[in-house]
Amino acid sequence: xxxxxxxSNRFVKELGxxxxxKIAFGGVKHADGTGNQKxxxxxxxxxxxxxxxxxxxxxxxxxxxxxxxxxxxxLVLQVPPTNPHSRFVFEAxxxxxxxxxxxxxxxxxxxxxxxxxxxxxxxxxxxTITKAEVEASKDQICxxxxxxxxxxxxxxxxxxxxxRVEFSRTDPKLDAYALVAFVAENVDSRVDRCxxxxxxxxxxxDGSDDGFKLRSSNKLQLQCVEASDPxxxxxxxxxxxxxxxxxxxxxxxxxxxxxxxGTDVQPDVQPEGFLQASLxxxxxxxxxxxxxxxxxxxxxxxECECSEQMFAKCxxxxxxxxxxxxxxxxxxxxxxxxxxxxxxxxxxxxQRSAKSAMINGIDNNLDVAMQGKCSQ
Length: 376
Known about the structure:
The protein is of the alpha+beta class. The chain has 2 domains: 10-188, Jelly Rolls; 201-374, no CATH class. The chain has 14 helices and 15 strands. A hairpin with a 2-residue loop joins strand 4 and strand 5 (56-59). Helix 5 crosses helix 7 (250-261).
């Protein structure tokens, strides 16, 4: 427990029945609980972060400037006035599997300053949380400090969903701070299996700077999977691509990244280039809060949410072009991305027309449980 009487993993002991499976989408390192916490799985790699100012959002590769893991299971945001952004986002794909379970966001008042939280599900506002609301909570968590409370906001999930949590800073001249726990209880094992095993994200949850940067940046991921020798990028890159190859997912992830980001990256960059990617290279401008920008959206959640439907439509020929065409035809994709990736030249329009039977009706054939990226 720290000087303020706050234990980073105290919340684990107070949530739910110890006989059920639970996942905390936070912390510093991928791990499974031990002892009386063995039912818990800590999965920081399932979270993708970004920072925004106005309509411009940037993938975050510096933990000190955005949401990042803290302790065993928490997510923390601590930004100084010198940070140029006013909104800070973390997002995750929430799979309810067959049982739904209970999903909740726990917000702690001792670590909540200069802003408010907004929760979105599939782009639609779900809740707004203020410091006053958290302070009014009667749920005390600190034994020595009766004013130490948390607010537990339950997120109702009846189907798979994209969950986005955004902290909006009130005064840009002051520090901003928030501490939360995003957890799921009594959930289907598919939640952990798809994101953690199928796409090998556990390899990026090793607690290293390399792992955080690679997880956070689609462009860096594309550089990694395109490298002829991933070890020249980083050891984390080599482990991740090795796992993807073993799981027979490398080709799919590479195709999705090529379609979403583009193919204008150097396949064999040096480690310095990998670790010091210019923020201007990974910046995108979503038109509004509800559209999806594939260049910064989570490619691993694309793979979990949409892969069967998308690859069924793109089973032959130029797979990357076909996937990109599907994104171009989806009205939920940001216009700014389409302007840069969806050509209106006669040749490409003719090519797209030839594939119209494959593209037409894509969303009607997608599972109605899939929202956000997969639906219109």
